[in-house]
Amino acid sequence: MKRLAIIPARGGSKRIKNKNMRDFMGKPMIHHVLETLKASKLFNRIHVSTDSLKIKNTVESLSIKIDFLRPKKLADDLTPIMPVLKYVTEEYVKMKIHFDQIWLIMPCSPLLLKSDFIDAENIYKSQKIKCKLMTVSKYPAPIEWAYKKDCNGILKAVNVGAFKIPSQGIEPSYYDTGNFCIFSEKDILISEGAGEGENFFPFEIPFTRGLDIDDESDWEAAENLFLLSLQPK
């Protein structure tokens, strides 16, 4: 079983400047997930897809070779992830290098454990229906109880009458944590545009390990969760 890990890490970042390279608990953010990937011993090749020579150099300091840089046309704010995965996969196909599994792993996932990758691999292989896999967490409250603000700022129930249903009578809902996905090589090569978000098998992780770091408050929360993870159990 040949596995490729693709970590998209472009140089530009708007909400948190230089997010992928910023110091997180004593080392560049991207180092955390790269070290965890290496510790899992699952991957034949780890490729960081970047347009930045600075990121390339820090990644290669961990003895992870970047075979090619990402084109600038795939490194702007509006580029979806799937075209990046397809570009990387096609470049390896041109080199006559093929993989059974292609993993998309986001660089700002410092709370993941190597056991998360190993457990996800076991679940992916055991599926009777072959489909993609995505990390998810449960919503902390029923989404049926959601509110929206009207034009006057007053809360209005999205689903009128849903509050009559007790929480134990509502099926849990899940959200994409944005940490990693598993695809077959074929899934990537036949994808069009931004891809589609259907037909994924869930790999559930606690929100404390699946925090999506988009702004400074997320960053601070991740630091606190990281420190808690170091405490004696």
Strand content: 15-25%
CATH superfamily annotation:
Spore Coat Polysaccharide Biosynthesis Protein SpsA, Chain A
> Helical percent range?
25-40%
Query: Do you know the CATH architecture?
Result: Alpha-Beta Complex
What's the alpha carbon Rg, rounded to whole Å? 19 Å
* CATH level 1 class label: Alpha Beta
**Unreliable segments (pLDDT under 50, ≥5 consecutive)?**
none
Give the strand tally.
10
Overall structural domain count: 1
Strand order in the largest sheet? 4-1-5-9-6-10
Largest sheet: 6 strands, mixed
Q: Classify the fold: give the CATH topology.
A: Spore Coat Polysaccharide Biosynthesis Protein SpsA, Chain A
Give the count of helical stretches. Answer: 6
Q: Helix/strand-derived class?
A: alpha/beta
Kindly summarize this structure in a few lines.
The chain is α/β, with parallel strands linked by helices.
Structure commentary:
- The chain has one domain: Spore Coat Polysaccharide Biosynthesis Protein SpsA, Chain A, CATH 3.90.550.
- The chain is globular and about 60 Å long.
- The protein contains six helices and ten strands.
- The chain is an alpha/beta fold and 233 residues long.
- The model has no long low-confidence stretch (mean pLDDT 92).
- Helices cover 28% and strands 21% of the residues.
